[in-house]
Each structure stands twice: as C-alpha cells, then as structure tokens.
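agent> Task received from the user: take the single chain below, predict its 3D structure, and emit structure tokens. No templates, no multimer pairing.
agent> Plan: (1) validate residues, (2) run structure prediction, (3) serialize to tokens, (4) report one or two observations.
agent> Step 1 OK, no nonstandard residues flagged.
tool_call: predict_structure(input=
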Amino acid sequence: MYRLAVPGALALVVASSFAALSHRSSTPAVTVPPPAVVSRPSAGLQTIVLAGGCFWGIEAVYEHVKGVKDAVSGYAGGSKAQADYETVSTGATGHAEVVRITFDPAQVSLETLLQVFFSVAHDPTQLNRQGPDVGPQYRSAIFFADEEQAKSARAYIEQLTKAKVYPRTIVTQVVKLDAFYPAEDYHQDFAEKNPTYPYIVYHDKPKVENLKARFPQLYQD
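)
tool_result: status=success, residues=221
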C-alpha cells in the first residue's frame, strides 16, 4: 500500500495538507439501494471476510458500524506460509488484504454490511487495485463462510448491476473462504492509532465520515 515515511512534526504538516483535500478521497461514496432481500436473523455471532483495497480503511469503517463486534485485518486467498505483509505485498502469493468482520445478525444484517461495503468502504469497479494501491492483493472480494452468505452476496451484486448504480462493471469476486490469517499487530486498529497519518487522512478518514453521513442509523463512535 502507499505509504509516506514522514517523521515527527512534519507529519502533522503533511497530514493537515491532506486533510484539506480529504473530500477528494480516491474512493468517493456512492448511493446504493438497500438489498431487496434480507436474510432472517440467526442466533449467535457470524463472520464475513471482505477485501476492498488496503485493510486499514475497511477495518476503520466497520469498527464504526453498530452490531459489529470485532474487525480484524488479515490475509485470505493464499497459504499460511506466505501470509505476512512483506510477502503478500509482492502481489504474487494469491492473498488479498482482508478484514474479518464479526457481527450480531440480530443487530445488523449481512446484507446491510454489504450495502456499506458497496457504498462507502471501497469502489467495487476497480480491478486489482483500489485508489493508489495496485495489485491483486488489493482486489475486491467477498470471502463467504457458507452458501447462504454466497447467495446474499451474488443476489446483491446482481441487483446493483441491474440498477446500473456504477458507470463501470462490478468486479467483486465472491469466493469461499479457505482460511483467514490475522495481519501483524501493527496493522490492527491502524486508523484509530494513527489518525494523522497522511494515508489515513486522505484515503480512510473520508470513508468513515461518509459512513456517518450516509448511514447515521448505523454509525457508532
């Protein structure tokens, strides 16, 4: 992912400059209709794994969604032996940067989480990239845990495609989750711990702000 190695006070100056441009985020929000069909709430917590560019931003968005109990950055789509940041960043391992979202379906449905995913979390029409981040590790994907999740994801993509919500084709993959590998500790809660980091200010903070503006009923501090 794109990084700026800017130390100390200079980082604050750079971050301020990026903040002034934050409304021009590389991933602008899109108004998408709610899912036509919503699954019945089931007992107990569920998980869904989503990929949409740098995991910092996806994690930051879902940590502010009511009903989400946990959001963990990690890797999926490749082997455990290669599931580390430096190796995944080569783009040659088959992994995607992902976020495992644990949620209470009695409070928020999977379909609502997908509406957030397609509206404010990322641009599902960018193939093997997201904003400044280029490579298959930044692809758009939904890693489903079971066939019910797969059915919901495919139905919603079909709905958005028929509605012509986007000017380009949705390229989001819907694939079965084989395994999830948590990312290194320094990647966890990165946006929360580093709010003035230029990448966060420019690319990820606007996503959280768009969540608050477009889904006020879902937003939590």
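agent> Step 4: summary for the user.
The domain at 42-214 is CATH 3.30.1060.10 (Peptide Methionine Sulfoxide Reductase; Chain A).
agent> Done.
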